[in-house]
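Preliminary data (for renewal application), thiamine diphosphate complex.
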Amino acid sequence: MPPDDGVVRVLRDDLTLDPENDPGLSDAEVLHLYRHMVMTRLLDERLVALQRQGRIGFHVGSLGEEAAILGAAFAMRKNDFIFPCYREFGAALMRGFELGVFIHNMFGTAKDTVRGRQMPDHYTCRRVGWGSISSPVGTQITQAVGFAWGAKIRKQDVATLVYFGDGATSSSDFHSGMNFAGVFRVPTIFFCRNNGWAISVPVTRQTASRTFAEKAAAYGILGVRVDGNDLFAVVSTVRKALERGIRGQGATLIEAITYRMGGHSTSDDPNRYRGSEVLEPWASRDPIGRVRAYLEKRELWDGAAEERLIAEIDKEFREAVAVAERTPLPPLESMFEDVYERPPWHLLEQRAQLLNGPRAPSPHS
Amino acid sequence: MPPDDGVVRVLRDDLTLDPENDPGLSDAEVLHLYRHMVMTRLLDERLVALQRQGRIGFHVGSLGEEAAILGAAFAMRKNDFIFPCYREFGAALMRGFELGVFIHNMFGTAKDTVRGRQMPDHYTCRRVGWGSISSPVGTQITQAVGFAWGAKIRKQDVATLVYFGDGATSSSDFHSGMNFAGVFRVPTIFFCRNNGWAISVPVTRQTASRTFAEKAAAYGILGVRVDGNDLFAVVSTVRKALERGIRGQGATLIEAITYRMGGHSTSDDPNRYRGSEVLEPWASRDPIGRVRAYLEKRELWDGAAEERLIAEIDKEFREAVAVAERTPLPPLESMFEDVYERPPWHLLEQRAQLLNGPRAPSPHS
Amino acid sequence: MPQMNMVQAINDALRIAMRADDRVVILGEDVGRVGGVFRVTAGLFDEFGDERVIDTPLSENGIVGTAVGMALYGLVPVVEIQFADFIWPAYDQIVNELAKYRYRSGGEYPAKVVIRAPVGGGIRGGHYHSQHPEAPFIHVAGLKVVCPSSAYDAKGLLLSAIADPDPVLFFEPKRVYRAAKGEVPAGAFTVPLESAAVVRPGRHVTVLAYGAMLYEALDAASKAVAHGVEAEVIDLRTLWPVDITTILDSVRRTGRLVVVHEAPRTCGFGAELVSLVVERAFYHLEAPPIRVTGFDTPFPYSLEMEYMPLSHRILPALLEAVRS
Amino acid sequence: MPQMNMVQAINDALRIAMRADDRVVILGEDVGRVGGVFRVTAGLFDEFGDERVIDTPLSENGIVGTAVGMALYGLVPVVEIQFADFIWPAYDQIVNELAKYRYRSGGEYPAKVVIRAPVGGGIRGGHYHSQHPEAPFIHVAGLKVVCPSSAYDAKGLLLSAIADPDPVLFFEPKRVYRAAKGEVPAGAFTVPLESAAVVRPGRHVTVLAYGAMLYEALDAASKAVAHGVEAEVIDLRTLWPVDITTILDSVRRTGRLVVVHEAPRTCGFGAELVSLVVERAFYHLEAPPIRVTGFDTPFPYSLEMEYMPLSHRILPALLEAVRS
Ligand SMILES: Cc1ncc(C[n+]2csc(CCOP(=O)(O)OP(=O)(O)O)c2C)c(N)n1
Ligand SMILES: Cc1ncc(C[n+]2csc(CCOP(=O)(O)OP(=O)(O)O)c2C)c(N)n1
Ligand SMILES: [Mg+2]
Ligand SMILES: [Mg+2]
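Predicted structure:
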């Protein structure tokens, strides 16, 4: 367990909210967030199952990190931009990314907006202020800074939030992004999901600093720690950081303390490097369960509502999968588009070679 | 002027030493260091002059930073290794690198131990525990960590000291080197010469942190600040850091506060970006002048001794230059050696092409 | 002789090298307890402990930079980059430092590091788990570049690479990590660097391939027989310095050349191979050399099988080379 | 028409682009008050202020990473890398991010950045102030690569590069920064990308060159006349996508090819040019193409004039191409 000092918490064990940092969410807002957290978890389960059945190639889930992921995105405004890592599809959907389009991405179909060019979970949705997902760890961090800095230069009221893991704090882009944000007072919120692990590498092998938040001081940036399994605390902390950014007080590094309850991705078997007993202290702090208890206590939620919600999501999901599975792969020509704005001669030549040549024996899926 | 809090100082204005951090140097040691600081400054002047006359191609000097540079190296043991930046030839000479060989490097002759392959000031001297100089900023930092870490794995009592500038703290290698040193408790001393500038970029554009030393906390490393123009304080601070490293307490980041009194290198004209008035507060804190005053007060030094010393160095220097100027350039074949341990077929072929082909019209110098 | 796949063969080579020489250490992400995401280092952590099989922070720059330092000290670091696609943050340390150390120090500081990285497509990895980036390393003076195709070669070449005095990039074709299986001697043995292997003799056309594409070239060559074409397939094994003698011997006999690689065509290693042959065997060539390669696009996900230069694209090239 | 050298011409192009479009911003080390170590950005800080001419911390990775972010937002960053030798810490952001952004986002996030960097030797810069690293960028799908040789072209090509929708590496041959002088129109004009120029017509051999080596090729061509050889010299100007039509037109006429570049030979751009020509004009070639390039060693200091493919090494190649 990470050190406990200075961690912002709001939702108390008795299910009341600490007024000091209560973000003042309306019931409707809490319900909205809760539904999306449930949806995120359900989709995670379903997508892992699809992968196990060989129907999709890969999935990287968010089990246990739903409050951190959704709470952070919720606190941002519509005009702000979010630079995702790879584990935050739930937040994209909450911001308005359509489930059907997401599922097309998971199958890499012709209707995938990134045209089946990237692995599952590597979608893009500019319309909802959502960046383009990349696998290399950390690269989105400097970009998030550049984006907000660009807006600042153009005197536009735009902040960015960038998600990344504890492992990413070791990357060069973390260092450069934090440093540039500090020097140029850029309104970027660095949202570090400290989930304990970088695949099999524990945080103690990632840094010798006591906490991740204190890395902020090296860049003249404010660093804060928040209970990442406390939805209310996350919303409140990110909102405050956003307000600072808007007021011209620069960037904030937020360390959200949470835990990766599943494997790193469908390619990973965590039993190889950690016992299941490590999950126990975290299971009792389940970010969704805590909000459900809060809602139930306030009689805003019950088992029937939960069943209805699950049935609804399930239906939507099944339909989306059915559509995606009926959708062909992207056309061959699409391989040569968007490399440049217009394909130069060599790509036209290669496109002709491909189109006029024989087909591969077994395009997978 | 950088903030003044927590800066280790030893040599007081009244020319006594603060006992708290007095390194207890013998008179002979102080004289040894003083002579080498004077030599360093004299060579800087002479080398700049040679460059102005077109006799050498380049020089990067240490004007104003002599105490930081020499004091740090002096505190290290023979068996320790030093990873230089590019501004520390004075320390290399003090460790036993021969002046004559250094001058061969400045002229890139056949007797240059790096065989005229690199620019002036990019020499190497493994024999005295001195690394190979590279131009890219920061790359030596991770290497210094790896070297000491390697020794630690082999249970050898070797520490490393790595020199770099304030600008280098922005590099990826600073981040990675500090981080690895923290996690693996490596006995490396990170010696940051905060000389106010990275060519024309002032420290305020390099970082928003108050001090460079506080960057250490981000890596679980001790950070300390020292008056880089106070020879005694530098020796004492580096010695303590070395002792910590030897005791297994890991790395230390030392911020030596000093000032680049000259241009960045012979290629730079500082008048383009700073007025000469910025030099004034520093001129009165000249690192060599302070030690000379201390020595004179203790009647260990006087004008006659200074004259003798200068004449001596001058003579040695002139002789070395005369030898270097008589020495031919490296032979053509040398271009193909040391790329690999043994030249593969393609280099043998290219070597033959060069040797059998026409000569270039005007090899410079 | 034991049967091994390529993962096991590489694992075996690492174990043998580490037992023989305790200067050999392994650094990388997830190489320790979990034994690597492809399990190439499985069991080594248990045998050699965490000072020789080192899980590092997530920084390729840091891994290679510190490995260079260890090498300067005298260790022989064998670095694992989890996927070659993630090697770029370390490119500066590799090309500006590692490759130039011996040269720039006049021989005082040779820096010997082996960098292992899985390469190539066909595992549904998209842009960032499929790159095959040999060319930008071959271009850099001072590096050696190896890419085995069989379990036997993987073991023998890795043992050579570790013993070699120069830095080596060791690219492992992950598509055949488990499929490339065969008899591999149990103890230490080496396959010399700079030696290509004629894996299928033939007289009509020379095919140069390596890594996973070797099998595609062989498949195409066997299908070409039905068309009356006997292709000679050469597995380059070491990409640089390449075994020019074996290549030229073959091309001078066949008069025709097809080069296969997964990386994008433009400025890929195929261009170098074509140029080397054209410069040295111009008057033996009876037809223009043909490159069958990845396209000049980022590596795609859904269409990866259409992107890769598989047998179905090599076969027509063989026939064309012979017919033109 | 005003006389300008290349530094002035580039400076002029930057000023024109910044006046015309306030989305254009400059980032780099020492680009601000001091106007760049080669003074290419001189005066721009005074005119456009420190929000558009930005001195950054010493991190090429940070410069390019944040520039990519600015481009995603909608600005048009023109980055200066102080020497191309120092571009490697940014290589990951360039090849894994900038080059792939439009593609991987299905066109939602085109990222348009121009990266300017002085390249090449002949200024006594040794290993780290002399590199000419076009090949590792040309190999990467999604990038365009430009290298002008004259002041006129530098201005016209830079204005094209800034207006172009795709990311461009703009390599400036620093050896001729001041020597390449000539008449350059005062206002805005463009030289189209992808267009090579036949700068000296000839009928015996085609010489492809660019940047500082263009002048060496021209010098060799003029000396070749005395030997009865008329060389056609083509300045490629845009390296990728290269103007293949102009190249093939010429080679089909001359039947002989010499390619010149400063970078090391192996896997250099010359290999690609040779391959392109051989694939497309094989039956027109009457002699093996010849590459005159830097050697496969790090760039040396004292012997740099012997390392570089100067006129004295090009001339024999021209004669050999014609005689063989
Ligand atoms: C530059 C780079 N190196 C290695 C990898 C392989 N890799 C993918 S995710 C990961 C761990 C990331 O850990 P963390 O940043 O904590 O994020 P988390 O997965 O825990 O959310 C690694 C090593 C990568 N994608 N990019
Ligand atoms: C990676 C890299 N980028 C840019 C340069 C060009 N350059 C050489 S020295 C220097 C400034 C270094 O400043 P600092 O680290 O403070 O050291 P100082 O020169 O002040 O001792 C720059 C930008 C370089 N050598 N390497
Ligand atoms: Mg993590
Ligand atoms: Mg400095």
